[in-house]
Every structure is written in C-alpha cells, then in structure tokens.
C-alpha cells in the first residue's frame, strides 16, 4: 500500500447547516463554530443525521454551527490544523494524528453499556467460495482497506496481518476503497477476495437490511477499540472550550428525530448519549502505530 507523503488538501462534501446564534458574542470565529465529521458512511446517509446533531449542539452552546462532512479522513485533520474547524468527530487513528499535528483534544465519545465509553472491533473477513479458509490464505489475494488513516479500516487489519506473519503492504494486493461502506460493498459484491469489516459497518448494514452473516467468514477479530472521540481544537478560548466540552460530553441523542436515532444506534452506542472521554484512552492506538512503524505525518 502507498502512504501519501503529503496530507490531502482540505476539501469538503456538500453538507452545511447553520444554527442561529443565541449569544454570538460568547462564541469564537465571529460567532460561528465549525463542526467536522469524517466520511465513515456515505454522505447521503450522514448529512441529515449530522445536520440535526449540529442543530442540537448549536442550540445548547448558543452559537451558529456549520457542519462539514469531509471528503477524507485527512481532509478533516488538515482543516483543524488550519483553524477551519473548532471541533470534530474523528476516527481513533485520525484523532491520534489530529492530536499530534492539529492540537485536537478528546473531550467526549458515545456511551456504551453501563454508561462507559463505547468500544467496537475490527475484523478481516472473506466470503464463502473465495477459496480462503484461514488468515494465512489471504497472502497474494486482493484485499479491501477503507482509508489509510482509518483505525479499523487499515491500522488494526494491518496489525492483525503483521502478528500472523503477513506483510500488510506487500503480502496482499491491497486497495483503498475510500470508506468502510465502500469496503463492505466490495466484499458484498465479491470485487475483492477479502477485506476489513468493522462492527459499526455491520450494524449500519443490518439497519439497511444489507447484512447476511452467512455471507461472510471471519478470519481475524481485534480486541475492543475505543470508539470515535469528539475533539475540540486545543487553542480555543478557555471559557468557550470548557463550555463546548461540557455540552459535547452530555448530549442526549434521544432528543433527535427517530430516524436519526436509528442511524446512530448500534451495538457500540446502545444508550444514545455521550460521555466524557480523555486523550489517554487512545494510547493503545499509539502503541499499534509504534508496532507497525507508521509515520502518521505520511498518512
């Protein structure tokens, strides 16, 4: 696989929503707070949900909120690094890079069982008839990753391969599908012999009646991974940053429309609310980065 030497230039898919400010004078950036989201699902599915979420956050903080769905993981990171975002939802690996280069600070995440920060898992799967029976059999076969900066769509599958004697760069014919949904579609339509499939994408596919468990064979599964953090830009005014962190870590997603709740609900987010999160929760991601000798700056 080829890691880009330059971060992807900032670009965003259409998807902007503004919420009237209640107290623009207490908000940074001339009263506008910009909320970035990575493309973990298709924009068509994400936009209406995150527009409603942005409105709810805007109402609570009393600012105008603008929502952007980035075209790539790195586009969101680059946007925060260039002070074009005040906060965002990042994938775990994307967050580690954003913390390193864009001063992102994790303050919240989605709640799992018993009100604790939720987790999810990554896996490597194939389909019946591919001729692959064990993980070792994927050597030399086509393999769908999601995105170079994706935790469960790249880092963990690569880690799983490495631990089992397979070079994740040269041991498979890797392609980057662009998102978890695209990777899943490549598997579902047998465009690749094997690929990554995380538990969040499985939940989404079940919601849309697109997942048949008998159609996939799991070859490897990760340990629990901390779910996406909501992170604020570290150089925000202290008072506003504290207020924003408080709002982001106490959201009740039951206040959203029922369709939004169905989209956001999953095995990893059963309580439909957010809870506080810390930067240290992502230290295991940093350990994996070290194990795989990944230069985050070159992702």
From TrEMBL:
Keywords: Signal. It holds the Pfam family Phosphonate-bd. One of its GO terms (cellular component) is ATP-binding cassette (ABC) transporter complex. GO terms for biological process: transmembrane transport. Transmembrane segments: none annotated. The keyword Phosphoprotein does not apply. InterPro entries: PhnD. CDD domains: PBP2_PhnD_like (cd01071). It comes from the Bacteria. Coiled coil: none annotated. The keyword NADP does not apply. Residues 1-23 form the signal peptide. Gene3D superfamilies: Periplasmic binding protein-like II. Belongs to the phosphate/phosphite/phosphonate binding protein family. This is Phosphonate ABC transporter substrate-binding protein. It comes from Caballeronia mineralivorans PML1(12).
